Amino acid sequence: MSDVSSFWSKWSPVLLSLLRIVAAFLFMQHGAMKLFGVPGAGDHKVELMSLMGFAGVLEFFGGALLLIGLFTRPVAFILSGEMAFAYFMAHAPQGFWPVLNMGEAAVLYCFIFLYLSAAGGGSWSLDRAMRGR
User: Fold this and answer.
1) How many degrees, rounded to 5, is the angle at CA 14 between CA 13 and CA 16?
2) Hey, which end of the chain has fewer CB within 10 Å, N or C?
């Protein structure tokens, strides 16, 4: 095996964890805005018992589970579905191209989470730590 291939094989689980952590941290902010009005949403919080409230719960608490890498595969699968639903519900009716209908983030989150549902949380996850016991 070449040195380059060996390097990427060694660092791949760490980079997977970094992708999970960064995506989850960014995703949690969407939920925090919906549920708590922070950061920067002011008094614009959604009704908890609404579709947007449910989305906020999934985004904040599901994002928190992904951030720490707990139940990564099932949580990521659910969040991938949420983002597909959000895209087709809110963005696709505004036009075909995600760059024009403001759906780029939803599409990226959908496929990142779908990937995480298959790949797991990586080496820096509670799933991995609990499996090691």
Assistant:
1) 65
2) C
